[in-house]
Amino acid sequence: MLVALLPGDGIGPEVIAEAVRVLDTLEIGGLVFEEAPVGGAAFKAVGHPLPEATLDLAKRADAILFGAVGDPDCDALERHLRPEQAILGLRAELGLYANLRPAATIPALADASALRADIAGNIDLMIVRELNGDVYFGEKGMRATDAGLRQGYDIMSYDEGEVRRIAKTGFETARARRGRLCSVDKANVLETSQLWRDVVTEISADYPDIELSHLYVDNAAMQLVKDPGQFDTIVTGNLFGDILSDLASMCTGSIGMLPSASLDEGGKGLYEPIHGSAPDIAGQGIANPLATILSAAMMLRYSLGLGDAAARIEKAVEVALAAGLRTADLGGKATTREAGDAVIAAL
Ligand code: NAD
Ligand code: IPM
Ligand code: MN
């Protein structure tokens, strides 16, 4: 089983190193790692954020463990050369259309949530975010208006096939959980969202056992803070899912805690924390590696058929936190390395 390691930029390499140490501790027979540069690191090394060799490795691998991309040095580059194009390119090239972003209460972290304990105590939700379409991948550019003003534009669109595909993932995900699916859109304003809502409603006929509801995205953001425990599975588009998942991370504790899986139609996946390269703390050795360690667990479960090993990692993270492990984002002083050590000790 070949795992592509793409550490990327900023804290990416720091958190990936800990995830690899945890995987090594499990001594899984036949697991082989191959590493390649991606993002700003790849641009600086070979002049492109997603070099041909890196894309080729990602295609050959059984699964991909990804750190983060993003480098302030690269923010003024032409868009196609910016680090973020690497992760967008991987998602598009590999057809990784279904992004699963789970968020659940960890009792030991009650003090880390931005919400009162009585509100944050019963969170167990899964955001199913569409990852191959929406305003992210439509025509975009800069042009001049008739009045000579600079105008930026990004076309938002979904076709019904794209919505049908992710809606099915949403319903199937809800079926494997508690049977409730909330579809989030902005159908009161956007045609893209009206189609989304129509198609999700059509598909619901095939899932009579699933309780479907709809929320506008602004209300959904409010409800996630007011009463996050009301949600089971949320299905939404690329942009709304991006925003709501960062929001959900602070309901449970920290953005340094939330993992994700990005899956294609055959079960191949890319696994990454939902956070970015955190340039403000990069190089200090204080980033929380748990989101990446938990992403490695998702990789074992979803792409490598090693659910037991995944559960062992998840349990070890829980035990380490219960024993008092806290990186800076959780209000503590543990370093990235010490956090890795604590999980390994718990294993
Ligand atoms: P960010 O997620 O990198 O950081 C937001 C805040 O959270 C920062 O204060 C950071 O220090 C903190 N943080 C994030 N991860 C943490 C961790 N593991 N431990 C402790 N603290 C953590 O978001 P940003 O600052 O908006 O973006 C920085 C760069 O990352 C940008 O270039 C952006 O495009 C990129 N980005 C990449 C990805 C990805 O690779 N998938 C995701 C999000 C952002
Ligand atoms: C994420 C990130 C990416 C996104 C960026 C870096 C392209 O924010 O994975 O959440 O917007 O999808
Ligand atoms: Mn994001």
Q: What does this protein look like?
A:
The protein is α/β, with parallel strands linked by helices and 347 residues long. The protein folds into two domains: 1-96 and 264-347, 3-Layer(aba) Sandwich (Isopropylmalate Dehydrogenase); 114-252, Isopropylmalate Dehydrogenase (3-Layer(aba) Sandwich), CATH 3.40.718. It has helices at 12-26, 40-46, 52-60, 84-93, 117-120, 160-175, 191-203, 217-226, 238-252, 290-302, 307-322, 336-346, and strands spanning 2-8, 32-35, 63-68, 98-104, 124-130, 140-144, 150-154, 180-185, 211-216, 233-236, 259-263, 269-273. The protein has a ten-stranded mixed beta sheet, with helices on both faces. A two-stranded antiparallel sheet has the order 6-7. α11 (307-322) packs across α12. The mean pLDDT is 97. The chain binds nicotinamide-adenine-dinucleotide (NAD), 3-isopropylmalic acid and manganese (II) ion (MN). Residues 11, 15, 68-70, 84, 87, 255-256, 272, 275-281, 287-288, 291, 329 line the site of nicotinamide-adenine-dinucleotide (NAD). The site of manganese (II) ion (MN) has 3 residues, from α9.
Report the CATH architecture of the largest domain.
3-Layer(aba) Sandwich
* Helical residues, percent: 40-55%
| Main sheet attributes: strand count, strand direction, barrel closure | 10 strands, mixed
Q: Identify every distinct bound molecule in the structure, by name, code or SMILES.
A: nicotinamide-adenine-dinucleotide, 3-isopropylmalic acid, manganese (II) ion
Low-confidence stretches: none
CATH class assignment of the largest domain: Alpha Beta
Overall structural class, as computed from helix and strand content, comes to: alpha/beta
Give the strand tally: 12
Q: What is the number of domains?
A: 2
Output the CATH homologous superfamily of the largest domain: Isopropylmalate Dehydrogenase
Q: For the terminal residues, how far apart are their CA atoms? A: 22 Å
Sequence of secondary-structure elements: EHEHHEHEHEEEHEHEHEHEEHHH
Strand portion: 15-25%
Residue-averaged pLDDT: 97
How many H/I helices?
12
Strands side by side in the biggest sheet: 2-1-3-12-11-4-5-10-8-9
